Amino acid sequence: MSHNNERRKITVADIMKDKYELVDGMMSVSDAIAILQNIAAKALVVNKKDENDEFGIISLSDISHKVLASDKSVDRTQVYEIMTKPAFCIKSTMDIRYAARMFEQFNISRAPVMEAGCIVGMVSITDMVLKGLTKNNL
Hints:
Layout: H1 12-15, E1 22-23, H2 29-39, E2 43-46, E3 56-59, H3 60-68, H4 79-82, E4 90-91, H5 96-106, E5 110-115, E6 118-124, H6 125-136
Parallel strand pairs: 1-2, 4-5
Antiparallel strand pairs: 2-3, 5-6
C-alpha cells in the first residue's frame, strides 16, 4: 500500500490580497490614515520616487509608534518621515511556509508581494494562517 506524503505547495500568490494602495511619500499621515480607513487596511505601499528608488511601507504600527506615541501632528508629519524603507518584499511564487519563516526572522507582519519587479499584492501573517492553513492542512 503506497502512502502519498506529497502536499500541494501553497504560494504567496494563492493567499495574498491583490488589492493594495500605492501612496506618495509626501502625503500627510492624516491623509494616509483616511485611506487606511476607506480601504480597511493596516498598511500602505509607498511609491518609489524614481526607477532607482525602492518601495516603502507605512503601517498602523508605524503611525502608532512614530506619531501617536511621540505626540506628533498627523497633519504636519509626512509619510516618508515615518515609513519603513526599503519595504521587505516577498516573491509571489514563494511557498507560504518559507514566507512565514522570513516574517518571523525579520519580525514583520505584512509585506508587499512582488512579481517581475512589480507589486501585485500584499500578504500578512493573518492571510498565511487563515487562508493558507485551511487550503490543505500544511
